[in-house]
Amino acid sequence: MIRALALSIGMVLAGGAVQAQSALQQANEVLFQQLQQVHRLSGAEMERIRAIFGQRGFMGQGNPAINQRPMTPEQCAARIPGGPESYRNSRFERICGDKYMAPLYDPRTERAEDANACIDMFEFPNIPCTYPVVWVKAVEAAQICAAQGKRLCDAHEWEGACAGALEPPDYRFDLGSHGAMRAWHNSKYEPTKSWSYGPTFQRGICAQDSVKSATCPGGGFNRCGSNHYPVGSFPNCRSALGVYDLNGNAAEHMNLPLRPDQMASAGSTTLGVTEMKGSWFIWDKINAHPDWCRWRAPYWHGAPVMSPSSHENYHLGFRCCKSI
Fold first, then answer.
1. What is the 3-state secondary structure (H, E, C) of 18-67?
2. I want to staple 320 with a disulfide (CB 3.0 to 4.6 A). Which of 95, 150, 172, 231 is the partner?
3. How many other C-beta atoms can be found within 10 angstroms of the C-beta atom of residue 191?
4. Where are the domains of the chain?
5. What's the pLDDT tens digit per position in 253-287?
6. CATH architecture of the domain with range 66-323
């Protein structure tokens, strides 16, 4: 009898998993249509992106069966003065060659036109008032960026986008270890720490007043809802360089080079190790770790970016950079 009950429960769970996968595939089809239309991707580019999404079957905007969204795309659009289309910047588009990208430069000494790289204004899919893509490994993020003619950002590029000024790379490869490089970097920037929206941490500014699923402890696609806001829902969660949601919503994969030949910004495709940037959707309630702009994290879930075992979870997404 116990065995029969266990088999019955297993069948119910399996049926629920099948339904969740079917709902996810339908949601991804809508996402693919949005990607192709907004970013004018070719058939070949979309074929590559579809193949990357199809490698494991979990990547997307979270599990539709258990997501608890704090805001709909329609509510997001209503919050933005001028609507989502107002996020377009014709000057940035001329510089970056794509919608919803922002030039990376130092306003103290440069103009936007002097930039050598751009960064997505929003978390992927980089379309305002859509939900961020999560359950993505760092290697898959790098592949998706490449499929669009972009690349994964180096850590210092994300930090510059957040702090409002791109500074030269300062990875101190001579120190020889992730821990030593991180400690030196954090001690350098902590006295002048800031957030994308200003010099002090604030609640209510960014997409970080959502909730964690009650079933989530222990993790898993069928236990943890991706309870994000649509990207761009908080117009004031914006850096001085015009980049949104760097604090709150989804945490983000970035490349942390440990050697000079691992810098994506210098043209490397080898890449370094994973660096998880930013905070995520519960930060107004739980500050799990520092989230100021130039803070670098410990080697959590560490792996080479291009490793098939790089980390994924329900609140971890990415955004892309582009060399110009």
1. HHHHHHHHHHHHHHHHHHHHHHCCCHHHHHHHHHHHCCCCCCECCCCCCC
2. 150
3. 6
4. 66-323
5. 999 999 999 999 999 999 999 999 999 999 999 99
6. Alpha-Beta Complex (3.90)
